[in-house]
Design brief:
Blueprint: E1 9-15, H1 19-29, E2 39-46, H2 52-57, E3 62-66, H3 71-81, E4 86-90, E5 94-96, H4 100-110, E6 114-122, H5 128-144, E7 157-161, H6 162-167, H7 181-191, E8 195-206, H8 212-232, H9 245-263, H10 271-284, H11 286-293, H12 297-333
Parallel strand pairs: 1-2, 1-4, 2-3, 6-8
Antiparallel strand pairs: 4-7, 5-8, 6-7
């Protein structure tokens, strides 16, 4: 028994100023191997100022519009409009594999205990930064693959039982941007005892940040918003099924080294322990670099430098996020 009255499902695509990418996304969703009468596609135009709405109207999809309130709100709006008992999400800058829907729903149909399914990213990009980003995802997928149940379902390729989604209150709409609102919901589901699973065969193609600046900017804000989530779920700061422990260690070491470098203006000898911490980060990057080298030679060679820069971005974002949480806590007490 899968717990569904029928196998009809709803695919929800939140879109904000997505005119450039939305057409390819919708074309892929309307050309699925899944039975065409078995699903609907809903685009929620989140107050776009470009031609996103007009682009969506060209396709045989349902289009709903709202004032700009962020992707969490747009996804929740899509669920309220949905007719299906199964809810799938992808992003407007993703192109779904032809079997994406079939693979996303398979675990939900096969096991009534499964409440949510996480899919995967692939990319066809050639630039080094984008290839490194993809290698990162694949490293995380290797970690997820070792767990029968997981605690992270990213919205770029996600499936939920609608009943469970609504019971848990959906996405927290206080997250104003597309950053860690899916982490928050995932942790909430896992903490409530729901079973979340990973299916790497349910993949979408994505355009990752393709310059070092764009990549590091993304990581900075990932670190910032993740600290907001960790305030609610502090145990996840230590261990989860998605983030390799070495990344958390590297981020902590880099935060310490930044502190040493700051105080070295007054105590010059602190430069040495700061440099030592950087050396430790580089040493801990070697397993990933060697693993990646076997798949992509140049990404493997560049990995230590990327990882060092990533640690800086994560550390700075995390420090700023922690400061925000500290101020919020003080505000709560006053």
């Amino acid at each position: 028994m899968n717990g569904f009255k029928n196998n009809f499902l709803s695919v929800i695509v939140p879109a904000y100023n997505a005119e450039r990418t939305l057409a390819a996304c919708l074309e892929s969703l309307l050309d699925q191997s899944y039975e065409k009468s078995g699903y609907e596609v809903i685009v929620v135009d989140d107050g776009s100022t470009d031609g996103t709405g007009r682009t969506a109207e060209r396709f045989k999809v349902r289009v709903k519009s709202q004032h700009n309130r962020g992707p969490a709100s747009a996804r929740n709006r899509g669920v309220r409009e949905a007719s299906g008992d199964i809810i799938l999400f992808t992003d407007a800058d993703c192109v779904a594999d032809r079997d994406w829907i079939k693979e996303m729903v398979a675990p939900l149909l096969a096991d009534s205990r499964v409440a949510a399914v996480k899919g995967a990213y692939k990319t066809k990009q050639k630039k080094l930064a984008a290839r490194f980003a993809q290698a990162e995802f694949e490293d995380r997928y290797d970690l997820l693959g070792r767990h029968a149940t997981i605690d992270m379902v990213d919205t770029y390729s996600a499936g939920f039982r609608k009943e469970v989604f609504l019971k848990m209150g959906g996405f927290d709409e206080t997250f104003p941007v597309a950053n860690n609102e899916d982490t928050d919901l995932s942790y909430r589901l896992a903490a409530s005892g729901y079973k979340l699973v990973f299916n790497p065969r349910a993949f979408v193609y994505h355009t990752h940040p393709d310059t070092l600046y764009k990549y590091l900017r993304t990581k900075f804000w990932r670190g910032y918003w993740r600290m907001v989530v960790y305030r609610r779920y502090p145990d996840k700061a230590v261990k989860d099924s998605y983030t390799p422990a070495v990344i958390k260690i590297q981020t902590l070491l880099m935060a310490l080294s930044i502190g040493f470098f700051f105080f070295s203006s007054f105590m010059p000898h602190l430069v040495y322990p700061a440099g030592l911490l950087w050396a430790v980060i580089l040493v801990t990057s070697l397993p990933f670099s060697l693993k990646t080298y076997k798949k992509d030679k140049w990404v493997g060679i560049a990995s230590p430098a990327f990882i060092l820069c990533r640690a800086v971005a994560f550390a700075l974002g995390s420090v700023l996020g922690a400061a925000r949480c500290l101020l919020a806590r003080r505000g709560d007490r006053s």
